[in-house]
Design a protein that fits this description.
nine-stranded mixed beta sheet; 30% helix; alpha+beta; 289 residues; 2 domains; extended; disordered N terminus; 7 helices
Length: 289
């Protein structure tokens, strides 16, 4: 039997013998799972028929994958986000997810704030947030971690350490660098259910590029991609009881949200009616005078 323990920075799992597993960040960046061993694992499925999940506004959201039981590490998160075909890119955020599933959203249309909405804190507890930088040499599948050079909070450059024995520091072209911001969360009442939201974006915005940098980007096919990779997964084997509890709590909060919106509409309508009544009364008074 295992229990899940959290503090403000990270989450760990402690088994019945008192042994701790890695934190969520360590698991996501070092765990040797099938997803990270074989980066083409998901891509083989892209010829399959697209399945969907309900999204905001009643729209259907394409499911990128629904059988990944471990969190992807940083480089593979970028890989799947960048190589994701257009038919799998969602334009709205998924809602009420209670199963293992991955989604890819256009971050120009869907923001982290849209997913972590006002009511989000009711169910989800953020266990950790990280920001790392990764670069690519071929713009395809060779993403690797780099160290950013910051000046007053602005990215000025990046470098990597050479793989040879000398360990020489090598400069990396900034237009080849991606920033990956990741938010790790778990369901409050069922902490074995997890969510990882990863914002993959160009470290240097297009508007800040020089003419030479824009030309180089164009020569490489304008591969400036900003996307959200959202992964829901169960730390242990999903149980019907836990899943039903998650769905039940989703439904309960939806009822409260609808009731709140209805009350707000009533209040606004009453305010409009009072304003109209005041205007009519003032007009009538002026007319009688």
């Amino acid at each position: 039997m295992c229990r899940f323990v959290e503090d403000d920075l990270f989450a760990v799992i402690i088994d019945e013998n008192g042994n701790e597993s890695e934190s969520e960040e360590e698991l996501s960046d070092s765990e040797e799972n099938q997803n990270n061993k074989d980066p083409q694992n998901l891509l083989r499925k892209l010829k399959m028929e697209v399945t969907t999940h309900p999204g905001k506004g009643g729209q259907e959201v394409p499911v990128y994958s629904n059988d990944d039981e471990h969190p992807l590490d940083g480089p593979h998160t970028i890989l799947h986000a960048v190589q994701c075909p257009k038919k799998f890119i969602a334009t709205v955020a998924p809602t009420e997810v209670a199963d293992t599933a991955c989604f890819v959203c256009d971050s120009n249309l869907v923001s982290m704030q849209m997913i972590e909405e006002d009511a989000d804190h009711i169910h989800w507890k953020q266990t950790m947030s990280t920001t790392h930088y990764y670069a690519t040499d071929n713009w395809k599948d060779d993403f690797y971690r780099v160290t950013p050079l910051m000046c007053r909070g602005v990215l000025r450059g990046a470098y990597k350490v050479g793989k040879d024995r000398s360990g020489k520091i090598q400069r990396v072209d900034i237009i080849r660098v991606y920033r990956v911001t990741r938010h790790f969360s778990c369901w409050k009442s069922v902490p074995v259910f997890h969510r990882v939201i990863s914002l993959v974006e160009a470290a240097l915005p297009y508007k800040q590029m020089t003419s030479k940098q824009k030309q180089l980007l164009k020569a490489n096919g304008n591969k400036l991609i900003n996307r959200l990779f959202i992964q829901y997964y169960w730390r242990f084997q999903q149980s019907i009881l836990n899943r039903e509890q998650v769905l039940s709590e989703y439904a309960e909060s939806s009822k409260r949200t609808r009731a709140k919106k209805s009350w707000i509409r009533v209040v606004k309508n009453v305010a409009r009616l009072r304003a109209a009544t005041s205007i009519l009364a003032a007009a009538h008074k002026n007319h009688t005078l």
